[in-house]
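Much of the work behind modern protein science is quiet bookkeeping, done one molecule at a time. Below is the pair of lines this work produces for a single protein:

***
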Amino acid sequence: METLTLDKKPNTTDFLPLNGTDYVEFYVGNAKQAAYYYKTAFGFQDLAYAGPETGIRDRASYVLQQGKIRIVLTTPLHSDHPIAEHVKKHGDGVKVLALWVDDAYDAFEQTTSRGAEPFQQPQTITDEFGEVRTSGIKLYGETAHLFIERKNYNGPFLPGYKSMQTNYQPPVAGLLHVDHCVGNVGWHKMNQWVNFYEDIMGFRNILTFDDKMIST
C-alpha cells in the first residue's frame, strides 16, 4: 500500500506546546468489569479510583496505568446521567483525549480564539497534594480534548481520586505509550477536521491515505 507524504511548511511558532497524552477516558457500562478486562488482557495496573467512597456521587472511575499510558474507565451511577445517555447512544468508547500541557489556561485561549468550541471552561482543582489546572474543547462527534496542567501536583492522578491497589495485579504486557489515536469523522468532514488540527491546534499534516489506497 502506498501513501502520500505531504511536505508542508511547518508553523513558525508553536502556539500550543504539547508534552504528550495525559490520559484517555472511556465511558463504559461497567467500569469495574472493564478495568478487570484491561488488566487481564493487556496487563494494565491499578493506579487510582474515584466514586462514592471518595465523595463522587454520580459516577465511578477506575484509573489504570502501564508504561506512560493512563486510561480512565468511567461509569454513571444513575440511569438518567449524561454519561449513561452517551453509553446508550455510542456503547463503550472514548470520550476524552486528555493532553498534557504546561499551561491549560493558555491552551484554552489559544484554541478557542482560533475557533474551537469550549467543552470545559478553565478551572483549578485542588486537594492535599497540590493543584491541577484543566480546560477543554469539543471535537468531532461527542469527543473532547482536555488540557491538563499538573506541574504543581504530586497526587496519584487528579484531585478527587484516591490511590488504589488491589491484590489482583497481572504482569504487564510491555505497553509503553500512546502511539496514535484514530478519529472517525462524518462523511465529507475529513478536510474540515484536518484544517481544525492544523489551524486551531497547530498540527502539521505529514501523511495521507485516500480511498484509492484503503477499502473496507
In short: Helices lie at 31-42, 82-90, 104-112, 190-200. The two ends are 14 Å apart (CA to CA).
